[in-house]
Amino acid sequence: MSTEDAHDPKFGEYGGQFVPEALMPAIEELADAYERYVLDNEDGFMNEFRSRLADFGGRPTPLQYADQLSERYDTDVYLKREDLLHGGAHKLNNALGQVLLAKYMGKERIIAETGAGQHGTATAMAAAHLDMPCEIYMGETDIARQRPNVFRMKINGSEVVPVTVGRGTLKEAISETMREWATTVENTHYVIGSVVGPHPFPKMVRDFQAVISEEAREQAIEKTGGLPTDVVACAGGGSNTMGTFAEFVPDEDVALHAVEAGGSSLQVDEEEGVAPNSATLSTGDEGVLHGARTKLLQDSDGQIMESHSVSAGLDYAGVGPELAHLVDEGRVTPVNVDDDLALEAFHRLSQDEGIIPALETAHAFGYVEKYHDDLGDTVVVNVSGRGDKDLETVIEETTERDLDIAPDMSILQRMGGGL
Amino acid sequence: MSTEDAHDPKFGEYGGQFVPEALMPAIEELADAYERYVLDNEDGFMNEFRSRLADFGGRPTPLQYADQLSERYDTDVYLKREDLLHGGAHKLNNALGQVLLAKYMGKERIIAETGAGQHGTATAMAAAHLDMPCEIYMGETDIARQRPNVFRMKINGSEVVPVTVGRGTLKEAISETMREWATTVENTHYVIGSVVGPHPFPKMVRDFQAVISEEAREQAIEKTGGLPTDVVACAGGGSNTMGTFAEFVPDEDVALHAVEAGGSSLQVDEEEGVAPNSATLSTGDEGVLHGARTKLLQDSDGQIMESHSVSAGLDYAGVGPELAHLVDEGRVTPVNVDDDLALEAFHRLSQDEGIIPALETAHAFGYVEKYHDDLGDTVVVNVSGRGDKDLETVIEETTERDLDIAPDMSILQRMGGGL
Amino acid sequence: MGLETAFADEPAFVPYLAAGDPNYEASIEYVEALAKGGADAIELGLPFSEPIAEGTTIQNAIVRSLESGMTPERFLGFVADLDVDVPLVCMTYYNLIYQYGESDSETASGETASQEGPRPFVEKAAEVGLEGFVVPDLPAEEAGPLRDACDEFGLDLVFIVAPTTTEERLERMREQVSGYVYVQARLGVTGARDDVDDATEESLARITDWDVPKAVGFGIKTGDHAERIVGAGADGVIVGSALVDIVAEGYENGDPTGEVAARLEALARELKAGALRGARTRPQPERT
Amino acid sequence: MGLETAFADEPAFVPYLAAGDPNYEASIEYVEALAKGGADAIELGLPFSEPIAEGTTIQNAIVRSLESGMTPERFLGFVADLDVDVPLVCMTYYNLIYQYGESDSETASGETASQEGPRPFVEKAAEVGLEGFVVPDLPAEEAGPLRDACDEFGLDLVFIVAPTTTEERLERMREQVSGYVYVQARLGVTGARDDVDDATEESLARITDWDVPKAVGFGIKTGDHAERIVGAGADGVIVGSALVDIVAEGYENGDPTGEVAARLEALARELKAGALRGARTRPQPERT
Ligand SMILES: Cc1ncc(COP(=O)(O)O)c(C=O)c1O
Ligand SMILES: Cc1ncc(COP(=O)(O)O)c(C=O)c1O
């Protein structure tokens, strides 16, 4: 997969294993399993993983030429269609990998956190598929704003455990799942949802997601005869980002753009401990959270801030350590897109290309809209997920904002009721 | 594609062109276009269609071995994963084909009807993708029970026109779209959503959907070394059914099962003109509706009955004429599954296989559950769509029924609100 | 008698009402009022649940009629009960005609349909004195069995020519049409409009040498419309929605049947008068 | 002084409270009450926003403390203000220690973090008289810089041994631990329980030859628990949630601070007495 040392828990100064002692043996066991099954394909693990990704997940996903956007930006825009993956987002690549790994490791139970609910639904699907009991921890705020995903997890047979601490979003859900893991570590695997957490999670999740860039790189060469000039992906924790970038990292000429949520503003409210954005790579600084040293949104004391974004899946105060490292190295350019621009991009992609993206994904397209003049002539954008889960939020937020590009939704208001 | 005479508007005694005179030239023009572009691949139409189906639609879809169901039924069950197609159902195969054809024909505008909203969303997506203005007619009852799909159509930039006549379901929506077509026929193409309507629609829609069986047949041979013993698909209008069966029709040893909605009962209420089911093939008789002679749910006078099914997409009093013909010929076996069995199958597939099916699709699995003893050793079931659109209905209907297999949904009720 | 006779001496006024709208008795009075108002022939709608060629006005009439209990059987009785001496045409959709022969057998039973087709209904229609049929969802290509039955029982079969009808299809219709040809004045569905469409003149020009009377319908609302259309060469005008509007309004306001009938009669007079005025602005149509 | 001295003569009772819970003044009184009740050393929680090793009880204490305005800076003042003469240990998460040197620079500015690491905070901690640290999210592998700073300023660094800790990791901790070793009595997070887990005895057995005192924590609630645990060979008991429960209850009921302090002191006495009873049921622990 990658040339770095798989045993090294660090990416430069980032990464590591900052977890309670009770979890250390579990993550050591996991690191061992990662090396054996994922890196060395012991017992044919990777073969089974790839075959299930294909048949159950629907891989490969297409790399689609975007007619309208290409014309609009006068540059060739290609869409990597992770929204077509089973479950509606790239998340299944990782969830399926980890649940399968848990099975190979002899674990009997799965827990996971979820923010947007995409990782939760992906895990619930993978757990059902592989016949593993599963509990998903989800903040109450997120439960309220991503209800369809909550239904889906329940319908797939998972338990959904509401997390009421703090603001009830992803940060709290991860903390709570770590606590739960500490209690049940012997028979339970914690399927973390992004390239965050203690080693080996960031590497392992990246490797499961790297199938995106493996395919995209090959497809781009096949369709265009060469490498793209730019690759764009949104970044919350960074799993679709790292998955989309991984195989391009050694291609030094390919510019890699990680698009974070600019939220409503880049200014933080230190008094309230609130950052009205999730632009960790652009504005955060180094610290230790959820098992890893990485870039964080924190106040001057080191308390973690409440982040914010219109998209629940980007709403996280941390970011994958490898991504933080690649940004410091200058290999990845961190950029951000605010709520308004993301919503506009959501509507543009829906109307112009017939693809309703996740709000997370819309950030990547907001970036292309605003900065297309700075991009080269072949741009690959990862469509990390579909927007079905976001319909309610989009309608609310669109109505509040009165965006020009938005369709008239009055037929639905007239008929009353929620979704 | 198929060996029959493409010019013949009939399938035995079924089919034909029973439309107002104003539409006759349009369907003649369409029949001509169908022959030229679809059958003769003029201007490379079929190449462009197949290439867009791959890149935009996500074809081929996998044929997945179902571990849990195979064990449960002690027979090899394979799932044809049309739920992974862009938009979440097989409907895009047809919608994309017709919108593209409309473009080749020089039409400037698209209209379509929709029941479950799946054909409407597929058409809205295809229209956005191909930059065609689009209006979708949808019954008010269906608007209320398939709200997420209404949002999706609007978000893709289509107009959604509520149809208030009658019970406000698919039957009324088709009638209304035909009227609209009669008014705007010169610049407008009517994208009908199933293998129904006047010639050439039943053949053309079947040919666009036949990609399902083309792939499934090849995949089955590749995975099992031979043909399946049984192919199962749900039938509303019959487009996924015909698409799934088409290439298997000449394989006389392959049993073809068309699963209709048994609703709450097979008994009709002549007085009220209501059939509490949509089991047209099993219980209907010959008549003329929506441009074709076919099997219908009608009263003794010939008035069309209101059909019923828990799944909006099967809720139709007619059925494709070719399917009616194949049933009379004995080549296709019509069976039906009632609302309860379909709901149970919905939950079973969700929990056991990690795939949340559309309620339409769930009927096919209800049949396999009930009659697996009668099936051979290799069964292909078409997963015609995903169930995201049905969550609200499923929760309501499940709560009413108190099914054993259903998950506890109280976490969501506790938090109040709709989806 | 034959439908053509209605057009014999002067431009004909052919009104349409849905039989049984809003109920049997009132509807009888309304149809008779039209005859009194000068109708030369009357199109009686036998309501079908899926009237794909109708606009909202007539759809609603059909719903009222169905809700008041109208059926094909009662429709035949309705025709027999009418006291009018102009030719009557049954306007309906093919499934009702087609199913009539089946009406005794259990439906929903999976039995194979009988092979009788439209014959039983046509036979009954002839018995009660109907003169012909207009079946909007039955194009010439599918009309064989109905044409045969009509011939057998001496009824006419009217076809509709649309602005979009091709020359080739015109020929097909010309071979089968009898009684009159229904010239659809514009694209779309039935419904009263505020203007007259240019398509009308073009359509008339295309069939000027046909040997059946040409009646123009779709959207005609006033005497002035009728005048223009007859002026343009039509042998008659067909008016539906404008009349049905009066029935609907009376129904909604709960007006006495007699009052509504009087209004229908008045509009009928206006339309007939308009048609007659139109005839003066052009050479009298010639029978070939 | 050194943390080990707390365990020198008899089994130690080591209570935990979150500093500043529910407010600065009350918390001072509560900590002092524990000292009066017989505490041999006290763990003071410096609250962090993401306390991943804590159960609900201590999470809530941390929320109350943060909401009353507790910060690392005020925490140091808090320690200085305390009038107790037992050793004090700071229990917190690594990010706070690590960020302290950064506290003057603008955060959220994208500047590179300073390379000072934990040193500035440890220096200040020494100044106000803290004797050591427990940092639940800092395993031995990552503890180098903090260990160094502690050495430099003469502070102890306590590690936690869990029931799942492997032999290999035990060795790594043994090399670095000082003051006492915190034996986690069960898997999971902090929180008072109704029983004592067998894992305790097994864990103690595994480290019996270590030359630091062994204090057992996680879930101890009553004097009887304390007795059993000391009986099983522990050199001391660490009690957090059971005491925090008293603070929480007092806070919720709006009880006078003095009353709550008295209850804390009483439970402290019970726990200390239990520990002493436990010592009698087994041979006095020997220092090697
Ligand atoms: C569709 C989609 N894209 C992106 C993300 C962000 O996660 P990550 O940055 O780990 O890819 C999420 C998280 O839920 C998501 O659902
Ligand atoms: C998922 C799904 N399956 C099946 C159907 C039934 O349509 P058909 O019988 O034409 O495939 C529908 C119609 O909406 C559908 O959405």
Describe this structure in words.
- The complex is a heterotetramer, with two copies of chain A (419 residues) and two copies of chain C (288 residues).
- Chain A is of the alpha/beta class.
- Chain A folds into two domains: 18-56 and 90-205, Rossmann fold; 63-87 and 211-401, Rossmann fold, CATH 3.40.50.
- Chain A is 42% helix and 17% strand.
- Chain A has helices at residues 24-39, 45-55, 67-73, 91-104, 118-129, 140-145, 147-155, 170-184, 201-209, 211-224, 239-245, 280-283, 321-328, 339-353, 359-371, 391-401, 410-414; strands at 10-11, 14-18, 63-65, 76-80, 109-114, 134-139, 159-163, 188-190, 230-234, 255-263, 285-289, 291-296, 332-338, 378-382.
- Chain A has a six-stranded mixed beta sheet with strand order 3-4-14-9-10-13, with helices on both faces. In chain A, strands 1-2-12-11 form a four-stranded antiparallel beta sheet.
- With 288 residues, chain C is α/β, with parallel strands linked by helices.
- Chain C is built from eleven helices and eight strands.
- In chain C, helix 1 (24-36) links the parallel strand 1 (12-18) and strand 2 (42-45).
- In chain C, helix 1 (24-36) runs parallel beside helix 11 and helix 9 runs parallel beside helix 11.
- The radius of gyration of chain C is 18 Å and the shape is globular.
- Mean pLDDT of chain C is 91; it is low at 103-114.
- At the A-B interface, strand 3, helix 5, helix 6, helix 7 and helix 14 of A face strand 3, helix 5, helix 6, helix 7 and helix 14 of B.
- Bound molecules: pyridoxal-5'-phosphate (2 copies).
- One pyridoxal-5'-phosphate binds next to helix 5, helix 11 and helix 15 of chain B.
